[in-house]
Amino acid sequence: MNPTLESLPILILYPHNRCNCRCLMCDIWKTDTPHELTPADLARHADDFAKLRLEWVVFSGGEPLMHSNLAPLCRFFRDRGIRVTLLTTGLLLARHAALVAEEFDDVIVSLDGPSSIHDRIRRVPGAYSALAAGVEALHRLRPALPISARCTVQRHNCRYLRLAAAAARSLGLASISFLAADTHSTAFDHINGWDPVTRAEVALTPDDLAALESEVEALIAAWPASTFLRESPSKLRAIAAHFHADLGLAPPAAPRCNAPWVSAVLETNGALRPCFFHPPLGDTTNRPFLEVLNSPEAASFRATLDIPANPICRRCVCSLYRPA
User: Fold this and answer.
1) What is the arithmetic mean of pLDDT over 311-319?
2) I need a labelling partner for 307 at 20 to 30 A (CA). Which of 66, 90, 151, 170 fits?
């Protein structure tokens, strides 16, 4: 693959650097200095986005709906014909339902299971009820707006994937996807890595793993040939395989991925990453986006990245692969 990028179909954007959940698998909520992107921050890169033929922007973070004035950021992209997706905890969805219904092309909500499990993992009382109220408000305002769920599999919900799918269906969501919790990297503000106590709360034990394997098979049997489950049976089984490696029972194996060639992550502080897990390619605060994306350092990174052998890739819980 060419180390110099002539196009960038997908951009993950962090409009706001804080979060209103308290999840153990993420440290973003510990950030105590709020910062957010402005329309001027995006306008500086408008020509580069056009040259790169940007197609799709996912608002992530942090919680995007904590931004003080999100609509202009959405319009910046939508006015250019770029698809805009919201990835949200759902806690503020009801409050901002009119904005979301007006400005976004689709929504992905984080869903950890039915009410009690979801609230326990989010560590926010009433989190599920707030999410449900937000989804209901969106359905009322814009019935055709696609809303799906994403469930991060970890110790506290690994036995309840079918209940998570049932919760998504009961909320009227279009689909649900599953991915394994990251317990190794410095992504999601685990700047100093994982302390043993926190990791033990999220990672699976051998008993948990056996339960997860049974639950995955039951989930596949419960939803055969269904578009409601976004993952194929092989990808669902790969979640269990990931935790096998996490426990040292098998060598870690990188997923099929070409994220560094088809996407990038732009953080609130201007840092531009090739994906969630690898270090930044550079800082776009005072440099053009395209200059950072195709800097000698960035091109060298892509030219030498051996995904099957790279230790970060081998532990990766994500798999973004976009066919040419």
Assistant:
1) 88
2) 151
